[in-house]
Amino acid sequence: MTSTSPAASSAADARGRSAEEGWQGHLPRSRDYRRILLGLGAAGLATFAQLYSPQGLLPTLARGLEVSASDAALSVSLATLGVALAVLPWSWVADRVGRLQAMRAAIVAATVLGVLVALAPSLEVLLALRLVEGMALGGLPALAVTYLHEEVHGSHTAAAAAAYISGTTLGGAAGRLVAGPLAGLVGWRGALLAVAALCAVASVAFLRLMPTARGHRATGATARTVLHGIRTSLRDPVLLALYAQGALLMGAFVAVYNYLAFRLEGPEFGLPASVASLIFAAYAAGTVSSRSAGRWVGRTGRRTMVLASTGAVVVGALVTLSSPLPLVVVGLLVFTAGFFAVHATASAWVGARATTGRAQATALYNVAYYSGSAVVGWALGYAWTALGWPGVVASVVGLAAVAAVVAVRTLPAGR
Q1: CATH classification for the domain delimited by 27-212+220-410, as one of 3.40.50.300, 2.30.30.40, 3.30.450.20, 1.20.1250.20
Q2: In the predicted model, what is the mean pLDDT of residues 393-406?
Q3: pLDDT at 20
Q4: CA 168, 174, 178 angle in degrees (round to 5)?
């Protein structure tokens, strides 16, 4: 292995950040800026539709396979675990071959694996393929925000990152809304194949839209370079606090969407699966709030936005305890809007904060984010089994409270 000093690592980062002398990044009125946002929006749709489509099928899977809610949730958790395992390796690949090339490879591999998942002959094979599919999908969230910081003018990266996050909300909603209702008509395999077809179209759009990268040049990064970037990030308390926001709140978010469908299809409401799956339309609130967060951060400051949005997460979760279904929907909308505003703010903040090893810094955010999804999203199934919906909500409020305390104690105030 080639030895690389921290100074050499910084030099490599500098070369990667400025592939063209004087390059400042695309501006909002430029054609390539619009192509980047549309392309990454398509990538977000392809990634998150595949990643979370089984979530719309969880009650159906649990009944059909005669397994518990937590066991059924493994079809989601193993994929998000795959993302968490893969984001750091993807950041290393991207340093060597370029962000855009790595994202292209990731989206093609994930599209193929999405078809194989739908054709899996058994649950064990399906779960194994979901893990590998998640590892392929990890290349997109691991690199998208880093890519934006290199290709978009610095004064517009927060808004551009928020636009990308809004695309991920559309993908997350689309996968669930396609898979859930179709499962009752064509079975789970047909539903997942339909999602895979949708993702293939979005992947082609991404491949055709993205302009040639100008802000990064492959640096031939070694494992030592990557480890230096990781160590630098893990020594920064602000980055650690941002990672905590992602882990705690993403875990809470996935748990709510994992287990609310069980409540809606249960004795309390008795909704059919095709109707209960429509709760994922609440993702529209995240699409709006993530874009709005990018605009409001400049006025309120990042920490204020994080704390206010976390407050919305708590309020929304508590409102879902209501018995009237319309109030449950309102609570879910508030909860979803709050979560995606936090995520859009925190993920953009990581990219802005990291000056050395930016790819590793953003990858570590994704490790925390998807680890929270995998572990907490699965574990809160035991709260559902033991205490029902109040147990899930109490756990979610507790996670949000811890995230808020970390933010107050560690994240700097101001803009």
Answers
A1: 1.20.1250.20
A2: 97
A3: 52
A4: 155
